[in-house]
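2024-03-11 09:14:02 DEBUG pipeline.ingest accepted 1 chain
2024-03-11 09:14:02 DEBUG pipeline.ingest length=225
2024-03-11 09:14:03 DEBUG pipeline.predict start
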Amino acid sequence: MKKFLSFIMFFVAVVSISAQPKPTVAILGDSYSTFEGYVEPSGNEVWYFASGRDYTDVNDVRQTWWQRLAREHGYKIGVNNSYSGATISRTGYRGEDYTDRAFITRMNNLGNPDIILVFGATNDSWAKVPMGEYKYSGWTPQELFDFRPAMAKLLDGLQTRYPNVRIYFILNDILSDDINESVDTICKKYGVEVIKLKNIDKKSGHPSVEGMGQIASQVADAIGK
């Protein structure tokens, strides 16, 4: 009888655990997190296509780091608001105004997630956007064309709009010292963990199929702690 009761209790515990909903992950990203037909809003520019391109071997959405994170590590993907070429700040390539695609513009459209993964700053580094000063409140519109004020605005806005949601910042492994130092400093100020990617395989500066798997694994290790 005792063995039977023990079995029943074990069975109920297993069923209870398996019935728990998977955490929903929202992504706020740039080209590294795009794929044709899988970003919101649908008008966001993408870098990865199902038809494939000569300069990448990623041609199936199931090869992306975020799909692999979901499939291989037990997460559910909610909103993926990624935009190819987007910067954190309002400054883009050639000094152009990227307000329409900036992370600080898109941060309010992430649905109702349990976890937010911000994967950015790569284009800020590549475009050599102005760094500006560290500032944590009272930002003027002009200051948000600089990286540091915009980065602070981003984390402040996310924590305000999505209380009790875990937020992580994924940092690429090929960025400038100024960007790396600024991300570390500002994330520490807001208590946001930085996931620092290491040795990611790339083609044309973007994750290959192998690199996507490496990202998924490194992110899963960090958020699964």
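2024-03-11 09:14:41 DEBUG pipeline.report Strands lie at 24-29, 76-82, 115-119, 166-171, 193-196, 202-203, 206-207.
2024-03-11 09:14:41 DEBUG pipeline.predict end
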